[in-house]
Structure formats: C-alpha cells, structure tokens
Amino acid sequence: MVQRKSVRDASEWDLIEEGAGEMFHRFCHAWSARVSPENPLPATAEEWPAIRDARRARLREAMGLTLADPCPLRPEVVAVEDRGDYTLERVLLHSRPNLVMTTHLYVPKEAPKPAPAILSVHGHWSQGKLAPRVQERNIGMAKLGFVVLCVDAIGSGERAYPGEEYHGRQLGAQALPAGLTLPGLQVWDNMRALDYLASRPEVDLSHIACTGASGGCNQTLYLAALDERVAAAAPVCCIGSLEGYLNGPHCVCELVPGIKTIGEIGDVLALIAPRPLILINGIHDTGAGFQIDDMRAQFPKLKQLYELLGAGEKVTKCEIDLGHGYFLAMREVMYAWFRRWLMGIQADLCPEPEVQPEEPERIRCFPDGKMPEEYDTVPSLAFAEARRLAQGYPQPEEIARNSRVRASLRARLTEVLALPEESQPAVETTRAFSGDREGVVIATEPGIRVPMVIAQAKGASSCVLWLDPAGKASILSEGLPSVDGNQAIAIPDLRGLGETHWERGHTVGVWDYQYFQNGLILGRPMLGMWVWDALQCARVLRERFESVSVVGRGPLAVVALLAAALDEGIASARCESVLTSYIYPEGFSREHAMSLFVPNLLKVADVPQIASLVAPRRLHIASGVDAGAHPLSPDELSSAFDVTRQAYRHAGAEGSLVLG
Length: 660
Known about the structure:
- The chain is α/β, with parallel strands linked by helices.
- It folds into 2 domains: 75-366 and 377-384, 3-Layer(aba) Sandwich (Rossmann fold), CATH 3.40.50; 392-422 and 451-659, Rossmann fold.
- It has helices spanning 23-35, 48-63, 132-143, 169-173, 182-199, 215-226, 265-269, 292-308, 328-343, 378-390, 396-401, 403-416, 472-477, 513-522, 526-542, 555-566, 607-612, 634-640, 642-650, and strands spanning 76-82, 86-96, 99-108, 115-121, 147-151, 203-213, 230-236, 277-282, 315-320, 426-433, 437-445, 448-455, 462-467, 488-492, 547-553, 572-576, 578-579, 618-621, 624-625, 657-659.
- The strands form 3 sheets. A 9-stranded mixed sheet has the order 1-2-3-5-4-6-7-8-9, with helices on both faces.
- Helix 3 (132-143) links the parallel strand 4 and strand 5.
- Helix 1 runs parallel beside helix 14 and helix 5 packs across helix 6 (215-226).
- The two termini are 20 Å apart.
C-alpha cells in the first residue's frame, strides 16, 4: 500500500524554489478555465430546447446512462403496515435484471387519490432509508398528503456491499473503467423508481417531485435535469460550484467524468427549467463544492433563464443559518414548496407534522438488513460489463502483426487517457549535485514542472527512467536502485508526487483521492497526466542517451506500461507490483491508488492488451497484484499475461517477455 504524509518535508534534492506544493492545484484551476464552456443564455426561449437536449445528451453519455435498458420492475411487496395516517409498504424493485432496490412506499390514507408523489433520495446516512433523519421527512411528507417513495442508493443502506457501509472511494470508482459511473447508476435507479410511482394507481403522474440532501441533493439535481417526469425539485445542501470540487473531497457518487467540460452546476440546474426548483443551502456548509457564496454566484444566470422561459416565479433559493444536513427548518421550506406547486397551497413555510421514526431494524426489507449475495452490486455490474467489452478486444496475433490495429489501440488509449496534443517538452532549469548527479526541471505542459534527478553512470549511453510514487528524495536517500549494466538513472517527481506533493491530495484516508477527483471532473484522468509526464521525460532523456528504458513500481507500474505501449522510442519496460487486470468480480482493495480508475479504459483494452503493445521490445513483469491487492504467484502471473505471451510469440519475440 502506498502511504503519503499529508505534509512533506523539504529535501536537499528539491529543484523548484517555491510553489511546488500548489502547482497541481493551480494547474487544475487553469485547466478548468481552459475547458469550461461559457454556456451563454439563449437569445430567445425558442432556442432553449435544442441547447437543453444537446447538453442532456452529453450529460447522459458522461454518466454512462447510454448503457442502460429498462427491464421489468418485478415489484415484491415484503410487508404492508398500518401507521395511522399512512401505510408503509416495504417493496423490492428490479432496476436491472439482477439489481434489486430496497424501498419504502408511504401512502397517505386520507389524501384524495390520485395524489401527488415525492421521490425521496437519501444522502450519506449510513443506514440509508432506515436512518431516523431520512424517515422524518418521509413521514412528514406522507402526513401532508404526498405519496412518498424512498429508495436505498446502490451501495448504501440495505444495498451496502458486504463488509462496507460506504459506496465511495475504490468501491464506487471501479465502475469507471467499464464505462459505468456511480452517479449514473444512481440516476438510473431513480428513473426506475419513477417508473414504479407511475405504475401505482394512488399517484398523480403529472405531479411527481424529488428531494434529497448532500449526496441525495446530487441525485435530485441530476435526475430532475435528465427526466422531465420530475415536476418539481428541491435539492438541499449541495448547490455551490463544480469549481469548488477542485478544492476539497466529495464522494464518487457526486463525480461525473468530465463534467467541467459540459458546464458548471448552474448549467446542470438549467436543464430543469422551467419546472419548479428551489435551492436550499446551509449558510455554514463547509463542503468544498457546497459553498453558499458559490450558490449565490450561480443563481442569477439560472434566474434569468427561468424568466426568459416565462417562469421566473418557479425558481428560488433559500439560505438557512445552519450547516450541512436536512434540518427541520430546511424540511419546512421544502414542504411549503411542494405544497405550492403540487397541491396549489401557497405559503412560505409549512410546519412539520408530528413525526415518530420507527426503529430501523423493524422496517427492513431484508430480515438482517443485508442484500442477499445473489444480487448484483457495483463490482459485479462493472465485472459483467468489463467481460462483455473484453469479447471485442483484438486477438493477440492482430496486436502483434497488424500495424493498423496497433495504431488504432494507441490512438484510442491516447483519447481515453486525455493526453494533450504532441508538444515539445522544455528543460527549464538545471542544477549540478555532487556525485555526478544532475537536476533538471522539465515543463511537460503549461503550468506543470517536473523535477528530475539524473544519476550519470560513467560513459553510459543508455538511461533508465525510474517511476516510483515515493518520489526522488525518498529513493535517493536509500541509495540508487539497482539496474542492469552501465546505465544512468533518471528519477522524476511526476506531478503531485515527491517535491510537487500537494497537501490536500491526501484526503478521506486515500493518498491520491483529490488528484483522482480533480482529474476526473476535468476530463483529464490523473493516470493519463502521469503518463504524459513520463512520456515527456523520456523524450528529454532521448536527446542525451541513445536508449531510454522505463521502470515503474506500484501504481506507476501501469504508467510505465502505458508509456512503453504508446511510445515505441522507449527501448524496454519493467513493472513491479503492477495491477494485472481491471476485470475483477469483487470490490477493489483500498490499497490500490484511486488514480488507476480511468473512465472507459476497458472499452479499449485491459492490462494484458496494453502490455502486448510493447512487443517486440523487452518487457519484464517482475511482479503483479490483482484488484484485491493480492500478490500473484508465478503461475498466476503467467496466466494473467497469457494474452501478452501470445502476442510476443506472434511478433517473433517470445524471449523478450519475462514474467517474474
């Protein structure tokens, strides 16, 4: 497991005089300014539908929603209980053939039928729909005459992955390489929840609303943005700015790949117009993306769009003198908003009826509150889709012998990794150290400076580019790594590592979480940024040495492999503790770097196919680990790279592949 201190000590091997620790953060904001569209308001109301539909299409694609098809819901009512003013039904639904949603349906007894309905989506309450705070608003809405459906989010509540309470971090991110996303999976579930509400005779189909706080707020805004059946929306405590997400961590369920290339949070909210929308924020919310000042800055443009569409009164904001949550004051604003637009009852506030949450264990859908093992989870969905994608991979012989196949794979990898267009790296500064060592700083792209120390072996004509997440200072303090023959060694600190370590990169117990998050929403996967830096370092070294090889360790072993696969000028590659495959039926280990998860990577290739692109050059897979972070035995390693071995054999270079 790669561990990093949140604060880095200065080192004698430092090459950048100041600002190195904030370089990555500055770059992210600069890149955001470069790729974020302005999305100006339409000149006329008639222009809006085409703009809206195009933006929705991009959002659906980014969320992986293009992969989903409806299946029969197969509702199973587990229990129906009389709660006085309402009945509570515990219902199982199938959002996908083997994916079960655990839900509660609250049906008011005295309300005229069909009645307006509300889809209530929870945030990061570990008990999901069972949490007393979530029950409070559901009961309150039911007592006010709304039919309420509350759904456990995938990976939460009774749908939690075995041994986990939290659906984020590696568990949620492992869906990305297969083209799925956690927010997309949630939105699809919620669309199917709307399907179920539409099937109930008690529900007025034209009057269905949605609300949730925090993670549930995100679910609300994305569902309402994409599904016109949501007649009114009240997202609570998540509206700030996507730019703010570059400053602090948020759950994987709130991260849409490349969302900043589509627009800001206000541009997503605009897709709800002209339907009623209220933004409820806590003034003291500390979430990086939930800042009250950012919400205030986003709102005027949203208001102008509603006014252009003749619906200015249907959008408003409410600032509550509280922090992050779904507090009573927020609920009473929400009740009033939905009563106004779904029932025609005008009031600024609606007092909450008396509510008494049930003991969570008494209202479970499953007796033990745990999803039976036979049902799908995020890992199993990702695994099934990955296996489907793998069936379309080129055969080893094609990779080895067909130049067009190799060129296509490289072009598609370049696109998935979001590598910049080719540019000439610049050596900005050099510094001589004792012991025949030299420091250089390479500008790999605007705003990124990679410090690298080159240890010159006397008379060396070849050089090894040594990639290690520990950083050059740590490696040099332990003595130079051992390499074959008389070779120089170049040890860079790729962006965010070593000397350029960003203190906020290490958060929520994951050493590279903020790197992963920023790269994901910017459409520049962190793994791709590291690959780019490595490629530029290799180009600089080739100007000095006749031959350049690359060695990668841990998560940077995948970087080394990709660099060698993409650049035939790299003479050879060696990988230590490399991830051997992204295709895995269980949850990824928390020991794996978050930056390994690249959206849509498996639509192009898995690790063995990437390794095959190195043929016929020398490739040494010294050791490997599976997605569970288990070291592979020699036989397991051989089996994992069987495809690669076949490609090397077809290339006439079987002896150039060394496993173990």
